């Protein structure tokens, strides 16, 4: 069994198709990393938004549950 590539430079060149192969790899990895970063930022924004919403809702429920009493003079 003989190796297909005899040196690293032949492996990188890939029979003159290396530019296309490596650019496809780079684009794929770039898109995947961009999607991961985008997803993490969206998740953080959603968590922040939900925290604010819960705090507002908690304030509303405490205002409704506290009875207003009249003080007689």
Automatic annotation (TrEMBL):
<feature type="transmembrane region" description="Helical">
    <location>
        <begin position="20"/>
        <end position="38"/>
    </location>
</feature>
<keyword id="KW-1133">Transmembrane helix</keyword>
<keyword id="KW-0812">Transmembrane</keyword>
<dbReference type="Pfam" id="PF04995">
    <property type="entry name" value="CcmD"/>
</dbReference>
<comment type="function">
    <text>Required for the export of heme to the periplasm for the biogenesis of c-type cytochromes.</text>
</comment>
<keyword id="KW-0201">Cytochrome c-type biogenesis</keyword>
<dbReference type="GO" id="GO:0017004">
    <property type="term" value="P:cytochrome complex assembly"/>
</dbReference>
<comment type="similarity">
    <text>Belongs to the CcmD/CycX/HelD family.</text>
</comment>
<keyword id="KW-0472">Membrane</keyword>
<keyword id="KW-1003">Cell membrane</keyword>
<dbReference type="GO" id="GO:0015886">
    <property type="term" value="P:heme transport"/>
</dbReference>
<dbReference type="InterPro" id="IPR007078">
    <property type="entry name" value="Haem_export_protD_CcmD"/>
</dbReference>
<keyword id="KW-0997">Cell inner membrane</keyword>
<keyword id="KW-0813">Transport</keyword>
<dbReference type="InterPro" id="IPR052075">
    <property type="entry name" value="Heme_exporter_D"/>
</dbReference>
<dbReference type="GO" id="GO:0005886">
    <property type="term" value="C:plasma membrane"/>
</dbReference>
<dbReference type="GO" id="GO:1903607">
    <property type="term" value="P:cytochrome c biosynthetic process"/>
</dbReference>
<protein>
    <recommendedName>
        <fullName>Heme exporter protein D</fullName>
    </recommendedName>
</protein>
């Amino acid at each position: 069994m003989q190796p297909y590539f005899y040196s690293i430079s032949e492996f990188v060149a890939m029979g003159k198709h290396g530019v296309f192969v490596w650019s496809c790899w780079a684009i794929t990895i770039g898109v995947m990393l961009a999607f991961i970063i985008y997803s993490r930022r969206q998740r953080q924004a959603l968590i922040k938004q939900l925290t604010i919403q819960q705090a507002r809702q908690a304030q509303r429920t405490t205002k409704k549950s506290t009875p207003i009493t009249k003080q007689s003079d």
